[in-house]
Amino acid sequence: MKILIAHTSPADFADQLQVRFPNDSFLFTGVPDNLENDLASFLPEAVFTIKQKSFPPPYHPQITQCPSVRWIHVGGSGFEHIGSWDRERIQVTNCAGVLARFLAETVTGAMITLNNNTFLFRDQQRQKLWQTATFSPLVGKTLLIVGVGHIGGWLAHNAKALGMHVIGVRHSGAPKEHVDEMVTPDQLENVISKADFVSVHLRHTAETEGLFDAKLISKMKPGVIFMNTSRGAIVDQSDLIVALNSGHVRSAYLDVFAPEPLPAKSPLWEMDNVLITPHASDHVNDWPAIFGNFFADNLERYKNNEQLKNLV
Q1: Residue 133 contacts residue 123 (beta carbons within 8 Å)
Q2: What angle do CA 310, 49, 2 make, to 5 degrees?
Q3: 282 strand-pairing partners
Q4: Helix boundaries (H) for 127-202
Q5: What pLDDT score does 108 carry?
Q6: Peptide bond into 259 cis (omega under 30)
Q7: Do 201 and 156 form a contact (C-beta atoms < 8 A)?
Q8: pLDDT for 20
Q9: CB 192 within 8 A of CB 215
Q10: Which strand ranges, in their side-by-side order, compose the sheet holding 91-94?
Q11: Do 28 and 10 meet the contact criterion of CB atoms below 8 Å apart?
Q12: What is the pLDDT of residue 53?
């Protein structure tokens, strides 16, 4: 079987794949500009691709156009960058949930950091200023998780351990462990005012683009802490900046932006009440190897004609 790996650092998992599947043929494409020729000459049946700054979205849709491809596995949870595909010919799977626990850990840490005056004390340290300040503990506070999937489930787990009340939003409205109240998206405006913290975990779709605009943000509780680690386009950044400047939103943790990278001229960079990370909230040390292991397990299933995990 021919398998093409589109990733700028093949050494991240090349050895483990070749050892595990010694009778299969692998082609590792580390240079995006080579992808078109490699697809045409190698004609792979399966492709494992990871979208990164070094292997940006515009290169990925051509994978679906290669006539030999029958299965595409996407590193990460999003798959919009590969465009549309012939669902009669191609199966697409992703790594949704594989790094969920680690991303939820990052959000939990950001929530504690923003709530507990960490920024204030950091500033005082730089000034060599010895001055105490109080904070309101997380116990009894309400966290609204907008999009209770893999990540949201782990975040709810962490929040309950901290003594928080958890409200969740999911399309099915079905109960989820560690979530005290679950509502459907049409009820979001009715519950958002209850939350001391709002964490967004939605996929970017036509329905969710610009969801958090001035109208919805205005319905949040004054002094709310807002966190977005899903997709930047879900939030109207201009409207959020206005709310941060006014104090209606006390502070924000933002890992995703529209566009990315966040332009140097964006006022978000200079805001003392904003914590910024460069779309890296789930970047644990060995994340490529973790994705590689998941792909290898799915490759085993594919070769055995078994149901693939995370089929889109």
Answers
A1: no
A2: 95
A3: none
A4: 150-161, 188-191
A5: 98
A6: yes
A7: no
A8: 96
A9: no
A10: 25-29, 2-6, 46-50, 71-75, 91-94
A11: yes
A12: 86
Residue 40 is which amino acid? A
Residues in the chain: 312
Q: Write b or e for each residue in 219-234: b if 16 or more Cβ atoms lie within 10 A of its Cβ, otherwise e.
A: ebbeebbbbbbbbbbb
Mean pLDDT by 10 residues, the chain (312 residues): 95 92 97 97 97 92 98 93 96 97 98 96 97 97 98 98 98 97 98 98 95 98 98 98 98 97 97 97 94 97 97 96
Give residue 228's pLDDT.
98
Cα 215 to Cα 166: distance, rounded to the nearest angstrom: 23
Dihedral sign for Cα atoms in the order 76, 82, 87, 89: negative
Instruction: Say which amino acid occupies 271.
Output: M
Element spanning 301, H or E: helix 287-303
CA distances from 129 to 71, 113, 126 (A): 59, 19, 8
Three-state DSSP class for 285? coil
Check residue 11 and give its pLDDT: 86
Active site residues per annotation: 231, 260, 279
Helix (H) or strand (E) holding 27: strand 25-29
Distances (CA, A) of 109 to 159, 162, 194, 286: 11, 12, 22, 20
DSSP secondary structure of 83-100 = ----TTT-EEEE-TTTTH
Sign of CA dihedral 122, 124, 127, 128: negative
> Which amino acid belongs to residue 59?
Y
pTM of this structure: 0.91
Omega before residue 261 within 30° of 0, cis: yes
Tokens of 105: 């850990």
DSSP type of residue 273: T
